[in-house]
Specification:
seven-stranded mixed β-sheet, 25% strand, 543 residues, Alpha-D-Glucose-1,6-Bisphosphate, Chain A, domain 3, isomerase, globular, 33% helix, TATA-Binding Protein, alpha/beta, binds 1,6-di-O-phosphono-alpha-D-glucopyranose
């Protein structure tokens, strides 16, 4: 074995987005592309002797090849140990869990999350720091700047590690340990939730369908739900991770998880339905013929958090991303705890969690999590709901309806215009920014604008400032329209329009969501001129 130094030149465009560097597989397959980025991560970290790195991915196409390359580079960089998931598989929450449990310096997650996989699909890489969470912007920017000047990388010429066999192998001076992908994570879940109560629930005939979407959460859900909690075999569908996710879009929302929606809409539907995404950090929660918005899910879990052993002491605070509905803020107010509003991107929750200011966090993009790790966590959210269902003896719909009756309902929807012309999308945002100053006080149909701005966040812990995080038009009654460009797409631009209307009166709590939001949808079009700028009369995806 020897270590080679390879000459390279900078490759433009390696700036991480909302969650790591995500590009088409064909881009990642270019000579030196992955290596340049990984060396930039390592050089940003500096001397790693004596340190441990965690490595794993969601099993998508190119995962195994990338894992072997990164192992050779980690050995060349002088890490003491690399812990790699069996088969190269680790869900994003499992990486976070293992980093924390094994006191690693950090970890590399290979995933493009909910983006499609396969040779024509997407690939991604993300660095997580010692707290288990995504690297904050000062770190990702340092990595990016390094990619702009990189001239060489170092790599061992050692052969491939057998990723299927658990155990330790030496590569150069580095100990490479292939670890069970599920064990550490499952152990943590047992500490947080009342597994006995959930076991009794299943033993009593409670039925559930969990859609693994042929992505990474399948093995975790199978081991925990069917293996440890006694759910009948077949509870987890699409459980085997496939390199192309079976040709589907591993995005747990009512549009992409169509098979699960169909199961839950049948007359003999199970009591509970759930799905997770490509890398296992998102979740969708369904009842019989009923779906729970991610914003409501956060609020409902927060209101009942003390049913779960891991949260019996109560919550310190609740954090949500700005476009997420304000339902959780109402719960925080009732509990007398702080509510935080951060930019989109789980990385913005890290400081609040580390400082003990927030216990639960959530995002409208089907992400929910807590201070147990520093990522959002799909299987965790499902277990939390199971714990709540077991403790309350109520159905998903009952819990949601009772929540609205107590706190009022925040009707909520996101309209996505995917793969639109990037220039047009940026011009739309620029033209909205110009209008912002003129909007306050305007009468827009049933609504009067209270204020309109481009969301800016000052981190309360380190004082860092994130600007231009989404344009919000907030009405005097708290209803809102938010416009943002996605930071995770790989084709053109994706315009997201987030719509929220608060309804206090229980008489109006059961309207179809798009109907309840119809006036706001019209205003969004009038103010932003979406059809004119994008040439699209309708959104691509409505969730
Ligand atoms: C990532 C981030 C989330 C964010 C989501 C959507 O999730 O971790 O914080 O809400 O992307 O971001 P955007 O609206 O910029 O596309 P994931 O599950 O893709 O890693």
């Amino acid at each position: 074995m020897s270590i080679n130094t390879v000459s390279t030149t900078p490759i433009p465009g390696q700036r991480p987005g909302t969650s790591g560097l995500r590009k088409k597989v064909s881009v990642f397959k270019q000579a030196h592309y992955l290596e340049n980025f990984v060396q930039s991560v390592f050089d940003t970290l500096g001397d790693c002797s004596g340190k441990t790195l965690v490595l794993g991915g969601d099993g998508r196409y190119h995962n195994r090849v990338a894992v072997q390359t990164i192992l050779r580079m980690a050995a060349a960089h002088g890490f003491a140990r690399v812990l790699v998931g069996q088969g190269g598989i680790l869900s994003t929450p499992a990486v976070s869990c293992v980093i924390r449990k094994r006191a690693a310096l950090g970890g590399i997650v290979l995933s493009a999350s909910h983006n499609p996989g396969g040779p024509d699909g997407d690939f991604g890489i993300k660095y997580n720091i010692a707290n288990g969470g995504p690297a904050p912007e000062n770190v990702t920017e340092a990595i990016y700047h390094h990619t702009e000047t990189i001239r060489q990388y170092r790599i061992s010429d050692a052969g491939d590690i057998d990723l299927n066999r658990l155990g330790v192998t030496r590569m150069e001076d580095t100990e490479v340990e292939v670890i069970d992908s599920v064990a550490d994570y499952a152990e943590l879940m047992q500490q947080l939730f009342d597994f006995d109560a959930i076991r009794k629930l299943f033993a009593g005939g409670f039925s559930m369908c969990f859609d693994g979407m042929h992505a990474v959460s399948g093995p975790y859900a199978k081991a925990i739900l069917e293996g440890q909690l006694g759910a009948p075999a077949g509870t987890v569908i699409n459980a085997v991770p496939l390199e192309d996710f079976g040709g589907h879009h591993p995005d747990p929302n009512p549009v992409n998880a169509a098979q699960l929606i169909e199961v839950m809409a049948a007359d003999d539907a199970p009591d509970f339905g759930a799905a997770s995404d490509g890398d296992g950090d998102r979740n969708m929660i369904l009842g019989r013929k009923f779906d729970v918005t991610p914003s409501d899910s956060l609020a409902i879990l927060a209101a009942h958090a003390t049913v779960a052993p891991g949260y019996r002491a109560g919550l310190k605070g609740i954090a949500r991303s700005m476009p997420t509905s304000q339902a959780a803020d109402r719960v925080a107010a009732a509990l007398g705890i702080p509510a935080f509003e951060t930019p989109t991107g789980w990385k913005f929750f890290g400081n609040l969690l580390d400082a003990g200011k927030a216990t639960l966090c959530g995002e409208e993009s089907y992400g929910t999590g807590s201070d147990h790790i520093r990522e959002k966590d799909g299987v965790w959210a499902v277990l939390f709901w199971l714990n709540l269902l077991a403790a309350s003896g109520k159905s998903v719909e009952q819990l949601a309806s009772e929540h609205w009756a107590r706190f009022g309902r925040n009707y909520y929807s996101r309209h996505d215009y995917e793969a639109v012309d990037a220039k047009a999308a940026h011009e739309l945002m620029a033209s909205l920014r110009i209008k912002l100053a003129t909007l306050a006080g305007q009468d827009l149909g049933h609504f009067v604008v209270s204020f309109a701005d481009d969301f800016e966040y000052t981190d309360p812990i380190d004082g860092s400032v994130a600007k231009q995080q989404g344009i919000r038009i907030v009405m005097t009654n708290g209803s809102r329209i938010v416009f943002r460009l996605s930071g995770t797409g790989t084709e053109g631009a994706t315009l997201r329009v987030y719509l929220e209307r608060y309804e206090a009166d229980p008489k109006y709590h059961h309207l179809p969501t798009q109907q309840a939001l119809s006036a706001l949808i019209l205003i969004a079009e009038q103010v932003a001129g979406i059809a004119d700028w994008t040439g699209r009369a309708h959104p691509t995806v409505i969730t």
